[in-house]
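re: the backbone from monday

yeah here it is again, tokenized this time
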């Protein structure tokens, strides 16, 4: 895990491995909130895709990269990720050179 640190106007990232165990303990509770809010809806703001879904996807994807199994207890969030990633223009972006996992 890294924390952004600014010195003299320059951004850099400093490893904070000691923070990782605490964050790993917090992930399930954070994801539970997302899961309960999403419920059975296809998208976070209702039945249509909105910018909120892009923000939610980013948060969920970053956590999934950080801890790949973190979504295992939340099938609705896994379904959301899948639903988002198969949108044709999103899929094109994921397979483009602009996307860096």
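seq for it, each position gets an aa:
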């Amino acid at each position: 895990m890294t924390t952004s640190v600014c010195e003299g106007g320059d951004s850099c990232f400093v490893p904070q491995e000691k923070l990782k165990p605490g964050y790993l303990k917090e992930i399930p509770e954070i994801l539970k909130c997302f899961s309960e809010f999403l419920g059975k809806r296809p998208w976070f703001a209702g039945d249509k895709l909105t910018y909120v879904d892009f923000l939610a996807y980013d948060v969920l994807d970053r956590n999934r990269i950080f801890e790949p199994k973190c979504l295992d207890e939340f099938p609705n969030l896994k379904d959301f990720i899948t639903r988002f990633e198969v949108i044709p223009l999103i899929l094109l972006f994921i397979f483009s050179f602009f996307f860096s996992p």
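The radius of gyration is 16 Å. The domain at 23-94 is CATH 1.20.1050.10 (Glutathione S-transferase Yfyf (Class Pi); Chain A, domain 2).
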